[in-house]
Amino acid sequence: MNIILLGPPGAGKGTQARILEENRGMVQLSTGDMLREAKDSGTEMGKIVADVMARGDLVTDEIVIGLIREKLETVKVNGFIFDGFPRTLAQADALGKLLADEGQTLDKVIELRVDDDVLVQRITARSTCGSCGEVYNDLTKPIPEDGKCVKCGGTEFKRRADDNEDSLRTRLMAYYKQTSPLIGYYYAQGKHSSVDGLGEIAEIQSAIAGQLDA
Ligand code: AP5
Ligand code: MG
């Protein structure tokens, strides 16, 4: 089963995708993580996208579609969780074609519904483990007192360059202008459903599981 987790910045896409990987053996494909890796390792592409990402604007369709194409051609699994992709109608069309080329289909699109008010708090309090990418939050899921990641024992934690109020405003605007039309796009294909993204992480997880098993 291939699914998309759709939602604004801070909706919990990455958090829920990682739980699905653990529980169902699916593979998370986060274009945001791939772009940050390129940036951190200093590739030409990473240098091009760094400023765009820090501002909170979208990088070009061409770059992100290329990243997803490469993964779909090389990683063979039973289920992908697309996290942060597609983000434009052109990306959505491209994803449909790429999956068809691989003899696969897109099965469900799950939207995480949240209030914009909570997003600032979630985003400005976020950190991630530098080794395994586990997602933390100063308020709702703090790093353990011994300073070690619960998943891998790593001791270095990172904050994102775009996790500030200014960039969040730009990211939210990009979501409403360019990404939210995908809700109608997938609704028309009979693939869209939504869950309340405001509850506890575990509650949201079971709501998603309910949708996947329906
Ligand atoms: P990307 O990395 O995709 O960021 P985003 O969409 O802005 O989403 P986030 O990763 O910020 O949020 P999330 O929904 O994953 O939330 P999380 O689980 O971490 O993209 C970054 C940038 O890359 C873009 O701005 C763009 O420049 C570029 N880019 C990426 N993909 C692109 C594409 N396809 N096309 C063009 N450009 C692209 O949770 C957030 C926080 O909340 C955490 O601290 C977490 O612990 C906490 N939390 C999660 N769930 C809950 C809960 N239920 N209750 C309380 N706290 C919670
Ligand atoms: Mg994320």
Helix content: 40-55%
State the secondary-structure class: alpha/beta
Query: What is the H/E order?
Result: EHEHHHEHEHEEEHHEH
Q: What strand line-up does the widest sheet have?
A: 2-3-1-4-8
Mean pLDDT: 96
Cα radius of gyration in angstroms: 17 Å
Describe this structure in words.
The chain contains 9 helices and 8 strands. It is 50% helix and 15% strand. The protein has helices at residues 13-24, 31-40, 44-55, 61-74, 89-101, 116-124, 165-179, 181-188, 201-213, and strands at residues 3-6, 27-30, 80-83, 108-113, 126-129, 135-137, 157-158, 192-196. The longest helix is centred in the last third of the chain and has 15 residues, at 165-179. A hairpin with a 5-residue loop joins β5 and β6 (135-137). By secondary structure, the chain is α/β, with parallel strands linked by helices. α2 (31-40) crosses α3 (44-55) and α4 (61-74) runs parallel beside α5. Strands 2-3-1-4-8 form a 5-stranded parallel sheet. The protein has a 3-stranded antiparallel sheet with strand order 6-5-7. The protein binds BIS(adenosine)-5'-pentaphosphate (AP5) and magnesium ion (MG). Magnesium ion (MG) is lined by residues 13-14, 30, 32, 84.
